[in-house]
Amino acid sequence: MFYDMHCHTLQSTGENTAEEMVAFAKRLGIDGLGIATYYSSSVEIVPKLERVDTVSCVIIKADNANDVDKIARKIRNKVEVLMVHGGDYDVNRAACESSLIDVLCHPELGRKDSGMDHICMRAAAENNVAIEINFHEILESYKRKRIYVLSAIKKNVKLAKKYGTKIVTTSGAVNKWGLRSCRDLVAFAYLLGLDLGEAIATTSTTPEEIIRVNRQKLAGKAWEGVSVAEGDEKVNV
Question: Domain 3-227 sits in which CATH superfamily?
Answer without folding.
Answer: Metal-dependent hydrolases (3.20.20.140)
